[in-house]
Amino acid sequence: MRVLLVEDDPMIGAAIVQGLEDAAHAVDWVRDGERGLLALHDNRYDLLLLDLGLSGMDGVDVLRTVRRNDAALAIMVLTARHQVDTRVDVLDLGADDYLVKPFELKELLARMRAVIRRRGGTGEPLLVCGDLSIDPASHEAEFRGARSRLSSREFALMEALLRRPGAILSKGDLEERIYGGNEGVESNTVEVLVYGLRRKLGPTAIRTVRGVGYMVDADT
User: Fold this and answer.
1) Any idea where the domains of the chain sit in the sequence?
2) CA 154, 156, 159, 164 torsion: positive or negative?
3) Quick check: do 2-119 and 127-215 share a fold?
4) Sign of the torsion formed by the C-alpha atoms of 28, 34, 37 and 38
5) For 127-215, CATH number?
6) CA–CA separation, 164 vs 218, rounded Å?
7) Would the CA dihedral through 165, 155, 104, 62 be positive or negative?
8) DSSP string for residues in 122-149
9) Going by C-beta distance under 8 Å and a sequence separation of 6 or more, which residues neighbour residue 82?
10) Element (DSSP H or E) covering residue 79
11) Residue 184: is it exposed, middle or buried by C-beta count within 10 angstroms (0-12/13-18/19+)?
């Protein structure tokens, strides 16, 4: 998934970014609330990870502003503020979850998966479309009896397609889901990943729509 992290502590931010990228998420990191709102205006994200104790615009104000304009975005608050009243206020403002620092990365990743499942209206841990499924926890994929563990970038590509079955995603769309706003993506990266996935899962796991992009059929 594509994640926006709004965190002003450089050590915490760098550790979270590294952990999320290792887990196949595309992450954009900004260090203050104003830049966070600008990033949300200019890009599409699956999840916002929001610190409260930001310099300048406070995280609570960022949350309030985001929720006035976007009811669909999943939002997790990551903060050192542990008071019950603060948790209640933040959840009532529209946060989907609240995680107190310090925390283990594996708990953050599990809570992210749970938030996205709830937002999708399902408790099912797997992403499934017909005979094709992927497990966000283990990064394993299965298609018509072929089962394989995916690399982080292969998983990110499959996750993007499976979250929108039947929709055609362009090469640029997929690059954003895999790399976020990072520069320097090689021109044939998506093609190489698709080739590798077809070798692992079978040639019909991903369909090419010539000149447009890639998709998984809704009734695969």
Assistant:
1) 2-119, 127-215
2) negative
3) no
4) negative
5) 1.10.10.10
6) 8
7) negative
8) ---SSEEETTEEEETTTTEEEETTEEEE
9) 100
10) strand 74-79
11) exposed
Identify the CATH class of 2-119: alpha beta
Cα–Cα distance for residue pair 135/142, rounded to 1 Å: 9
pTM above 0.70, yes or no: yes
Q: Is 97 helix (H, G, I), strand (E, B) or coil?
A: strand
pLDDT per residue over 178-196, tens digit each? 887 665 566 678 899 999 9
Query: DSSP letter at 169?
Result: B
Q: φ, ψ for residue 95 (rounded to 5)?
A: -70, 145
Count of all residues that appear for the chain in the document: 220
Whether the Cβ atoms of residue 36 and residue 58 lie closer than 8 Å to each other: no
> Could you read off the pLDDT of 100-153 as tens digits, one per residue?
999 999 999 999 999 988 877 665 677 888 889 988 888 899 998 888 999 988
Which residue in this structure is represented by tokens 């499924």? 133
